[in-house]
Amino acid sequence: MILMGFTCKPRLPAGTTADRNTMIEYLRTTGKHFLSLKKDKIRLKDCLLMWENARPHTATDTREFLTRRDVEPVKQSPYSPDLNLCERFLFWKLKHLLRDDEFGGHEELHSPFSGR
């Protein structure tokens, strides 16, 4: 299984709301970035895509985009971050450690964790 998280450049300007078009563009860009990082090509449909139930993630256009590429997102039931210990402690800490970091490849991904 592949665990990946990407925030592709350019990021959305402050105050911008993500919608279905933003999500589709994000998927296109993420797929291109991910393919460029791997020597052995991995397609978007080879990845396990697990999203929350935000409107841009579940929009009809987004679902159709993924269906055309044979991608089936893992369906996730609604949950409270207060009940999820990883969300409360681990991911919160990682988010604050990596807040301003952007990575261009696998080598750069390991460097923020050394020495922290």
Order of helices and strands: HHHHH
**What characteristic shape results from the CA principal axes?**
globular
Sheet of most strands? none
Instruction: Note the beta-strand portion.
Output: under 5%
InterPro entries: RNaseH_sf
Protein name: Tc1-like transposase DDE domain-containing protein
GO molecular function: nucleic acid binding
Organism: Caligus rogercresseyi
Describe the structure in brief:
With 116 residues, the chain is mostly helical.
What are the SSEs and their pairings?
Blueprint: H1 20-37, H2 55-58, H3 60-68, H4 85-97, H5 106-110
Give a description of the structure.
The structure is a single chain. With 116 residues, the chain is an all-alpha fold. The protein folds into 2 domains: 18-78, no CATH class; 79-116, no CATH class. 42% of the residues lie in helices and 0% in strands. It has helices at 20-37, 55-58, 60-68, 85-97, 106-110. Helix 1 (20-37) packs parallel to helix 3 (60-68). The longest helix is centred in the first third of the chain and has 18 residues, at 20-37. 2% of the residues are buried. The mean pLDDT is 68.
Q: What are the main properties of this structure?
A:
116 residues, mainly alpha, 2 domains, 42% helix, 0% strand, RNaseH_sf, Tc1-like transposase DDE domain-containing protein
